[in-house]
Amino acid sequence: MFNLIVSYLTAASSSKVSNDGGTIEYHSGFLLILGVIILAPILEEIVFRGLMRQLIANKYNYIVISSLLFSLIHSPENSYLFLGVFISGILFSLSYIKTNNLVIPICIHLINNLVAIFLN
């Protein structure tokens, strides 16, 4: 695993990441790691779990609305992918409600993106 991470960090060739909402091309493994695996989960969880929870008092409405919006930004046209992302959003929301700590859904989201990148 360590060798795989090092090879991504030091890759000189470009990498493409697609989620059917568009393709992002990264010209180094470092940018891939930084953007998709680290920054995206942090920023998305701050918005969709932290901020949305402050705006929506009812926890059930919060879970559904934040997960729905989370799915829409990731896969607006692919219904199969939309459902998977929606379920992930529900799990991230539940982990935040249970712990009241954004670090938990950020870590789960980070691991999810890490696995998705390495399997892609």
UniProtKB/TrEMBL annotation:
InterPro entries: CAAX_protease (IPR052710), Rce1/LyrA-like_dom (IPR003675). It holds the Pfam family Rce1-like. The keyword Signal does not apply. Residues 30-115 form the CAAX prenyl protease 2/Lysostaphin resistance protein A-like domain. Keywords: Hydrolase, Membrane, Metalloprotease, Protease, Transmembrane, Transmembrane helix. It comes from the Bacteria. GO terms for biological process: CAAX-box protein maturation; proteolysis. The keyword Membrane applies. GO terms for molecular function: endopeptidase activity; metallopeptidase activity. The chain crosses the membrane at residues 24-43, 55-73, 79-97, 102-119. Belongs to the UPF0177 family. This is CPBP family intramembrane metalloprotease. It comes from Vagococcus hydrophili.
